[in-house]
User: Fold these one by one.
Assistant:
Number 1:
Amino acid sequence: MPPAENLINAPEFTVSELSSALKRTVEDRFGHVRVRGEISGFRGPHSSGHCYFALKDENAKIEAVIWKFAHARMRFKPQEGLEVIATGKLTTYPNSSKYQIVIETLEPAGVGALMALMEERKKKLAAEGLFDAGRKQLLPFLPEVIGVVTSPTGAVIRDILHRLEDRFPRRVLVWPVKVQGDGSAEQVAGAIRGFNALSVGGRIPRPDLLIVARGGGSLEDLWSFNEEIVVRAAAESMIPLISAVGHETDITLIDFAADKRAPTPTAAAEMAVPVRSELTAEVATLARRVMVCWQRGQEGRRNELRAAVRALPAASDLLAIPTQRLDAAAAGLPRSLRANTHAHFRRFAAAGSRLTLRVLHGQVAQARHHLTISGERLSHCARALVRHRRERFDGLAVRFKASKLANAQAQRQIIARDRERALRLAERARRALLTTLQRLEARVTHSGQLLGALSYRGVLARGFALVRDAQGHAVRAASGVAPGARLDLEFSDGRVAATADGERTAVPASPQETKPPETKPRETQSAAREAKPALKRVAKPVDQGSLF
């Protein structure tokens, strides 16, 4: 380590400048990194929406922060004690002199973490009652329309359609979705809610049964069907739903919320519809049984009729008394007809004697008078109704005119207020833009001044020279130069090569050595100028040096 008197020409940094330099060094050196560790000290989002915690392992700990906008986009939220893989940018926090990672994405580390998260989410949703057996619906025996939520390009939809064609062909509506990756959970939940939003009897028929299907895969591949948004959509579905995600050994949370779980997509198709050939055979068997029962019933009723016929008396015995009554009624019929005719004739004659021409004229005059009175009353009512309607319409016209004027005045006031508000916002935006430009200009000016102050070329421009040995190391004392050594002198306008030919002579101390450090660069400048005659100068090309 060089003595303190040899570092007198080293540049000085303020604390802010040193913190900024360290910040740039850390960010440029590392940039975006992926860090695996356990979440520690997480107490939920701050009141501002940001999250502050730490990532640790067995030997170290690093502070971490998630900004509000990044936390809102994250599908996987941080939880205390969970091992995760964080991706973000390494930076420093000057106020407390510590480094930290600004996390942009977060994912669980390994299957164990996913299983723990799945169990925790399962307990939470079960506590809300989403998995209760009382919520589950019965599947329809023979649905007319079946809705399938799956990928349209996979083998799952082909297996389902093939199985339905073999058992009982039905109309199938496919809602294409992503079944893996970012955004897949939102698409599956949107498809379930979209099928439920279809109206009965609309242009697109509403399914009688839903099948959510996906092929097998790892826990990470099937994780979209463990998301809360998918489980809640399945639990809220008013259409009976069959979950057919993965193989028989794969368990997802949608299986608990669905009305029925199928071990495979093919099994889901088998649950959805019966076998048509079996139904046909069963119907034929039932038809034969109905025919046999009908024939047996007819035979029994025929036997009962025969027995009843044998127990009944003869027809002549039953009709003897009614025949006598008929003969008696036929004998008295002519006399009764003549008496009835005479009675009707007498009533007709009495009515004709009362019906004279004078009576008819009186009835016609009375009817005409009644008609006249009714016509006058109708005309009076019509005039009164027209007058009432005209007065009502005049009142409505006056009210409409007043409302139109009031509405126009209110709209003018709203437009005036909006115009004033727009002018105020425009003035505020102009002032904010000017203020921002002034701040940016001041920062650029300050950065240029800081760059000029930190550059060692400013020192060379004041007449100093930088001496390097043959290996390019800076020579800070004459004791470090051997006779005949090759030296490299850098001035403000270029470099020269030199050879140390003379002997080293001690420079007498002067009172100026007790002056402040600001005057010592001039003594070094004088010493460099006095040593120039003893050096051989060889021109070298100008090269950009290094501050450090």
Number 2:
Amino acid sequence: MERTVAVACKDGLHARPAAEFAKLAKTYVAEVSLRRPDGAPAKAKSAVKLMLLAVKEGEEVVLEAEGDDAEAALDALSAYLATHEAGTAAPTAGPAGLPEPASGTFTPPPAGLPSRAAGVPASEGAGIGPAFPFFPEVIVAPDRAVPPDEAVDEVARLHAALDATTGALIANKLEGGATPEDVGIIDALIEVARDAEFVGAVEAEIRSGRDAVTAVLRAGGALAASFERVEDDYIRARAEDVGGVTRALALSLLGRADADLSAVPEGAVLVADEVSAWDFTKVPAGRLAGIVCTQGAATSHLAIMARTHGVPAVLGWRDGGAALRSATRVALDGSTGDVWVDPDAATAARIEARVAGDRKARAALAHLRGVHPATRGGRPIEVAANLGSLKEIGPALEAGAMGVGLFRTELLFMERKSLPSEDEQARTYAELARAFAPHPVVVRTLDIGGDKPVAGIAFPHEDNPFLGWRGVRMCLDRPDVFKPQIRALLRAALSGNVKVMVPMVSTVDEVLRVKALVAECRAELDAEGAEAGQFELGIMVETPAAALMAGDLARHVAFFSIGTNDLTQYVMASDRLNPRVADLNRADQPAVLRAVEMVCAAAREAGIWVGICGEAAARVDLIPTFLRYGVGELSMSPASIPRAKAAVMEAE
């Protein structure tokens, strides 16, 4: 049994989505493999094998499954590949091929600053502080011959070391300083350490007569070399992760501890040849002023974690490790890749001024987290978060989200073998509402189709599922699926300010049928003596039909929420996963903006509010235009919220 699916994972099947995909595959008995249409298969339960395929975003792959639950496995795994968007996956590249800067405004580097040498700018910002050298000794393989009767004991030692090293990672993950980004990377490292292919290779080395330490170093070295041969830069950078896992296991087997990064002093600059993500998890949050390494790339997990924590970093510094080993003080510019070892007084003063400027700019944005922004003319605007699960509530609140403008309910239905119950849904929506009360939470009803199916719903084959049986169309045909969700939302409305929006609407009739179902569900709950609240009902405007019929639709709903991602795709007839039409698939296309303006005019005429929940809501260049049209709510990824608030306050 097989199925072909286009991979929607941002930047492809890299470490974290590969780890999550492998974990999902392991929940099924069926043997599952994944391959390119013309390539060799890789075991779906091995994150390492999946990563080595170097599958990119938008590529088609073939899933093959054999076993009792093969069809269910294909349903769930296909849905994952077709819909998953990693929280902060591989870094995106800017015009010069460098990572896009993180959210925030930073002081530009001062002119005329002498630089020792340039490396890879991996995490923006400037830093200066005492050097903290991290140059751990090279582990030499004992290469001890192990008789066959001792192999069992060596394998047992290996598994004890695996338990110890992964246990330490789990402890780091549970500490308060771990961000969602950290957790995703740590989970990927654990998946590599526990990977059946990797562990099997080590065990094979032991059975061939080698001691456990030598077996780990040999198998780990071979696996790292496999990653280094991959053409894709991001996948190639995973060799660093394998090296970190290999080293940690070998040290555990030897009963030795590595250099203690938990002892990094406040304000130090970590200098090293290489720092793995495994190593970085040991550094207390907020300690570092910067990182300089002679190896590494902007696509490494170290770079991603540094950006997440706001630590300036320069990797691949060309001067080599000798200067760093003897350094007492180091300054760096993570935006340009410049590094100064033992800078003179003038250079140090300039870098310190830059650091102070950066801190001031970040503090200004941080202050906006608690601000309810208004335009210069005094019009208040809500800046909310787009969320997909309850675990994202914390980062959204920390970023200053004024509620939720889009809660995607698909994750409740995906990655499982059966549909969620009404009670389970009610608990989830109620927890969401309580977390943001009194701010509104806008919950999107189930938005799935043939391109992202779920267990319990049989989708027919469609040549173009994006134009097929999806969203409200499927829900209206399956009241057994739709009504429990509506009932759950009515019950959750007692816990906070719940609003509900329906996706993929094209006609007034669809809205009227949804409203009839809501009334039916309310009557059922009343008859059962169950408590239920009230919610505003709105629609997502994402089809050209909805934009053209906005005036008619506005008379039947409480609000519009414009989904600019799909609206752009449909208005411009340009697949958002197809890089060849990327220039067309832009929210700033005049046709798209005209559609948004048309929808806002219809909302204003009907006296209802309108929001934007697509990625364009975070674009500071478009925010003034949206506000001029009459948009009253902007909803986006939490990281973009402070910057969007600043843009609102600067708008006329």
